[in-house]
């Protein structure tokens, strides 16, 4: 199948806003590149500074309504910034080029102390660590995006042994798989994209997860669930509208990890979830925020 890329010229200030708008408009993945080959000298450790002139690229399936996407992004951008986008260009991309580009970029990566995500074509650098084999695919969640990274680092740093977990917006299944590999008893994965459910199922098999440890559902089919830990890396708007649903699935004393939130959105989401949870201090990477909370017991 062919794919289409939408390239948008931006500056460093607006690149992440455009990334979010492209994801909201249905992009399967978003990348950012220097538009002018400007080297970045000695960026601060742990930060990914953006170039003055940045090309933000969204990847869409070949049959996507690109004219509709362009109109949606242009309108959303104008309503936030009161300015117009400089330029948007589309490019047809064949499958093999896309896969090749991913393979070149994708390397084993460690999250926290003991959790590694490794592509299948490379040996795990630490065979005795907690290794998850995951190849980049169509479903979001290869670990490289800060929103996923924040959740993986949280999982690495917190006890999950024997917990019942929900991975809401499971994408590739990466967070649920990490929880299971770290000792969780059972994971319910939910996603409104059928491709994500297929990807999660395939990735679970590749990682030797027993069939009865992971149950996958479309949101409307998910049975009544009570979990000890809710992981939800979806964007701010769904996190707000789904708040009662997500909160209702967490047992008293259980925990919630919310990601996919820009710093400007963190307060409103924290306030909303404070109705059910005692919210802890946020963590931040590259302008993305992860919020965590513990469900009230009364
Ligand atoms: C940002 S990706 C996160 C994937 C993976 N959990 C990770 O952490 O990398 C968000 C996922 O949530 C799904 N999603 C978005 N809105 C949703 C909704 N209202 N209900 C269920 N899934 C949703 C998307 O299809 C996508 O797979």
UniProtKB/TrEMBL annotation:
EC nos: 2.1.1.-
InterPro entries (UniProt xref): Ribosomal_L11_MeTrfase_PrmA, Ribosomal_PrmA_MeTrfase, SAM-dependent_MTases_sf
One GO term of the biological process aspect: methylation
UniProt keyword Transferase present: yes
Region span, Disordered: 28-49
GO annotation, cellular component aspect: cytosol; ribosome
A molecular function GO annotation: protein-lysine N-methyltransferase activity
Binding site for S-adenosyl-L-methionine: 148, 169, 191, 233
UniProt-annotated location(s): Cytoplasm
Any one Pfam family match given in the protein's UniProt record, by short name: PrmA
Chief place of localization: cytoplasm
Enzyme class: transferase
Reactions it catalyzes: L-lysyl-[protein] + 3 S-adenosyl-L-methionine = N(6),N(6),N(6)-trimethyl-L-lysyl-[protein] + 3 S-adenosyl-L-homocysteine + 3 H(+)
Source superkingdom: Bacteria
Keyword terms of this UniProt record: Cytoplasm, Methyltransferase, Ribonucleoprotein, Ribosomal protein, S-adenosyl-L-methionine, Transferase
Family label: Belongs to the methyltransferase superfamily. PrmA family.
NCBIfam families: prmA
Function according to Swiss-Prot or TrEMBL: Methylates ribosomal protein L11.
Protein name, UniProt field: Ribosomal protein L11 methyltransferase
């Amino acid at each position: 199948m062919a794919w289409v890329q939408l390239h948008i010229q931006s500056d460093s200030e607006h690149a992440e806003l455009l990334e979010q708008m492209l994801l909201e408009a249905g992009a399967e993945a978003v990348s950012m590149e220097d538009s002018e080959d400007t080297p970045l000298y000695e960026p601060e450790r742990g930060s990914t500074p953006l170039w003055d002139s940045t090309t933000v690229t969204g990847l869409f399936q070949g049959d996507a309504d690109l004219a509709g996407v362009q109109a949606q992004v242009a309108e959303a951008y104008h309503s936030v910034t009161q300015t117009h986008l400089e330029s948007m260009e589309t490019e047809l991309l064949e499958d093999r080029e896309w896969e090749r580009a991913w393979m070149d970029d994708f390397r084993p990566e460690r999250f926290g102390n003991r959790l590694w995500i490794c592509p299948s074509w490379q040996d795990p650098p630490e065979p005795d660590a907690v290794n998850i084999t995951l190849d980049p695919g169509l479903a979001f969640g290869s670990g490289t995006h800060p929103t996923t990274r924040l959740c993986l680092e949280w999982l690495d740093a917190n006890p999950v042994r024997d917990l019942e977990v929900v991975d809401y917006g499971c994408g590739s299944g990466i967070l649920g798989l990490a929880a299971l590999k770290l000792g969780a008893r059972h994971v319910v994965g939910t996603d409104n994209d059928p491709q994500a459910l297929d990807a999660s199922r395939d990735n679970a098999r590749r990682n030797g997860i027993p069939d009865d440890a992971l149950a996958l559902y479309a949101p409307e089919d998910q049975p009544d669930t009570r979990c000890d830990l809710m992981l939800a890396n979806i964007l701010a708007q769904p996190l707000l509208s789904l708040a009662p649903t997500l909160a209702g699935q967490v047992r008293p004393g259980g925990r919630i990890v919310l990601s996919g939130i820009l710093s400007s959105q963190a307060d409103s989401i924290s306030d909303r979830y404070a109705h059910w949870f005692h919210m802890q201090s946020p963590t931040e990477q590259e302008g993305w925020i992860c919020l965590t909370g513990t469900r009230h017991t009364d």
